[in-house]
Write a structure and sequence with these properties.
This protein is an alpha/beta fold and about 250 residues long. It has a single domain, classed as Alpha-Beta Barrel (TIM Barrel), CATH 3.20.20.70. The chain contains 12 helices and 8 strands. An 8-stranded parallel barrel has the order 1-2-3-4-5-6-7-8, surrounded by 4 helices. β2, α2 and β3 form a beta-alpha-beta unit. α1 packs parallel to α2 and α5 crosses α7. The chain is globular. The protein binds 1,3-dihydroxyacetonephosphate (13P). 1,3-dihydroxyacetonephosphate binds next to β8.
Length: about 250
């Protein structure tokens, strides 16, 4: 069975609640595409207004982060139960910005992965190398480590439903999209790593996105690659252009 494409916007720290509602109203008529899962991953405070504004559309709503404990004295964090109760279906975990600025590690990402599955929330687990790592020729070693640690104790049935986003750090917000060949090569490597950890059937089902300066021009070629099942889109998800990305063909 062909994997359904999943195209997600990562709004990052953009859009106040009123701006968020306006953006959803603008994008709603532009992102209809039955063949694609469309997800808006939005700041915590925007989740409820975006869910309301997206009602009756194909837009699914995701969070940008989540803590791995059920509840308690963790000032400033948001729990998996809070997301589950309001109808959040996806959560971005281990984005490079969280690893870089907020001390997220593959170990904490793994704890969050396990919690997300427990609550029926699909993780979009991010991985990706720095420019230095690419130049040192250790891209795949690094990403295999991120994936192997991130998926510790995740069952094959859970892994089948997961999403992995390959986001080379040097391509994020820089306007430098990885070439389709570079993106496909790493996404294929990630799929091979999943086959090693689990089996071919799991590798054939898991969805792998590319992220990093995806735009309406680069999306068609990227999404046509055998191992690229969609994209995680930053800047261009805040504009009407996101409609063209979702309808890339
Ligand atoms: P840009 O599309 O703005 O490069 O961001 C990519 C990203 O980090 C998505 O998570």
């Amino acid at each position: 069975m062909a994997r359904k494409k999943i195209i997600a916007g990562n709004w990052k720290m953009n859009m106040t609640p009123s701006q968020a509602v306006k953006l959803v109203e603008t994008l709603k008529p532009l992102v209809g595409n039955e063949g694609v899962d469309v997800v808006f991953c939005v700041p915590a405070i925007d989740i409820i207004p975006v869910l309301e504004a997206a009602k009756g559309s194909n837009i699914q709503v995701g969070a940008e982060n989540m803590y791995f404990e059920e509840k308690g004295a963790y000032t400033g964090e948001i729990s998996p139960a809070m997301l589950e109760e309001v109808g959040v279906k996806y959560v971005v975990l281990g984005h490079s910005e969280r690893r870089q600025y907020f001390a997220e590690t593959s170990e904490t990402v793994n704890k969050k992965m396990l919690k997300a599955f427990e609550h029926g929330i699909t993780p979009i687990m991010c991985c990706g190398e720095t420019l230095e790592q690419r130049e040192q020729g250790i891209t795949m070693d690094w990403i295999r480590q991120q994936v192997k640690v991130g998926f510790q104790n995740v069952t094959a049935d859970q892994a089948k439903t997961a999403v992995i986003a390959y986001e080379p750090i040097w391509a994020i917000g820089t306007g430098k999209t990885a070439t389709t060949e570079q993106a496909q090569e790493v996404c294929a490597g990630i799929r091979a790593c999943i086959a090693e950890i689990y089996d071919e059937a799991t590798a054939a089902e898991i969805r792998i996105q590319y992220g990093g300066s995806v735009n309406a021009k680069t999306a068609p070629d990227l999404f046509a690659q055998a191992d690229i099942d969609g994209g995680l889109v930053g800047g261009a998800s805040l504009k009407e252009e996101f409609g063209q990305i979702v309808n890339y063909k």
